[in-house]
């Protein structure tokens, strides 16, 4: 069985990253037994300069995109509907704040060493979009780490320190240099970049194309 590595560049504060992962999961179910996929999460910060207290999400998005609150709220509701069709909890999406997620990425890097990064990513999506919690709050990171079977004390200690900072910064830089300037971004076999939360059938076609090219090399 052919093996394909997928680097999924994502931020837990990105709604389309949560949606994109669920669509990727659908694609992986289709190719199960046909393609052996290694999934590696990679960090991206939507709001690297955001102060710790964050900013109300609609206020932030209106300023960022130059739109009025009503149209911004409507576009958020449309995203919520797409997410909820996939079974994601986005009930708190309009109440959330724009937050910096660097601490979350550092804890996620540690979770990756325990083979529990995907469950923690999903738990943090749920915390942010479902519960409107700050995904970089050490207490939230502790709570969600425990929920997925990680040590809560360690997660909180990492969040309150600078552990894994160098690793996260290096990964962010590497994928920006590879052309990822928005998320989600999926890089197949280190060669092909797929931008955005693409439908499952598009991802299946891309995976099969990579396998076919690898077989002919």
Give a verbal description of the structure.
This protein has 217 residues and is of the alpha+beta class. Helix content is 53%, strand content 14%. Strand 5 and strand 6 form a beta hairpin.
Strand content: 5-15%
| Overall SS class | alpha+beta
State the total count of DSSP E strands: 6
User: What name is given to the CATH topology?
Assistant: Glutaredoxin
Write down the overall mean pLDDT: 97
Which superfamily, in CATH terms, is the homologous superfamily?
Glutaredoxin
Query: Judging from the principal axes of the Cα atoms, what is the shape?
Result: globular
Largest sheet: 4 strands, mixed
Fraction of helical residues: 40-55%
Query: What series of H and E elements makes up the topology?
Result: EHEEHHEHHHHHEEH
Helical segment tally?
9
CATH architecture: 3-Layer(aba) Sandwich
The termini sit apart by 16 Å
Task: Evaluate the radius of gyration.
Answer: 17 Å
The number of domains is: 1
Give the class-level CATH name: Alpha Beta
How are the strands ordered across the major sheet? Answer: 2-1-5-6
Which parts are unreliable, with pLDDT below 50 for 5 consecutive residues or more? none
Provide a quick synopsis of the model:
With 217 residues, this protein is of the alpha+beta class. The chain has helices at residues 15-30, 57-65, 69-85, 102-113, 117-130, 138-147, 152-159, 165-177, 200-215; strands at residues 2-10, 35-43, 55-56, 97-98, 185-188, 192-195.
């Amino acid at each position: 069985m052919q093996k394909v590595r997928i680097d999924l560049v994502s931020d837990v504060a990105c709604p389309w990253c949560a949606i994109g992962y669920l669509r990727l999961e659908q694609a992986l179910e289709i190719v199960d037994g046909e393609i052996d996929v290694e999934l590696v999460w990679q960090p991206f910060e939507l709001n690297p300069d955001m102060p710790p207290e964050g900013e109300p999400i609609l206020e932030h998005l209106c300023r960022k995109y130059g739109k009025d609150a009503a149209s911004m709220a409507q576009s958020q509701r449309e995203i919520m509907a797409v997410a909820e069709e996939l079974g994601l909890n986005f009930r708190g999406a309009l109440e959330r704040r724009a937050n910096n997620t660097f601490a979350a990425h550092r804890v996620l890097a540690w979770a990756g060493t325990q083979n529990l990064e995907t469950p923690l990513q999903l738990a943090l999506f749920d915390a942010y979009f479902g519960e409107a919690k700050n995904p970089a709050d050490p207490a939230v990171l502790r709570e969600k780490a425990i929920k997925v079977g990680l040590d809560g004390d360690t997660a909180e200690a990492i969040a309150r320190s600078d552990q894994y900072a160098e690793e996260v910064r290096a990964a962010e830089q590497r994928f920006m240099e590879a052309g990822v300037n928005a998320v989600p971004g999926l890089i197949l076999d280190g060669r092909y970049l797929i931008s955005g939360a693409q439908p499952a059938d598009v991802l299946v076609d891309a995976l099969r194309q990579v396998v076919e090219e690898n077989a002919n090399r």
